[in-house]
Amino acid sequence: MKIKGLLHDHIDGCAVLVQKICEFYKLANMPFPFSSIEAWIDFFQNPQEDIIKRFSTINNVLQTAEALEELGYAYGKYRAEQGYVYVEAKFAPQYHTHGGLSMRQATEAMRAGLSKAEKKYSIRILPQICIGRETDAETGIEIAKICLDYGGEVVMDLACDEANHPPEKHLAAYKLTYKTCVRRDCHTGEWVLPEPKKTYRRRLLQNIRTAVYKLKADGISHAIPLVDDPRLVAYMADNGIRLSGCPAAYRHAGLIKDIEELKIPELLDAGIIYTLNTDDDLFLPPMPEVIASCQKIGLTKAHWEKIAGNVWKGAFAPDAKRYLK
Question: Is there a domain that residue 211 lies in?
Answer without folding.
Answer: yes
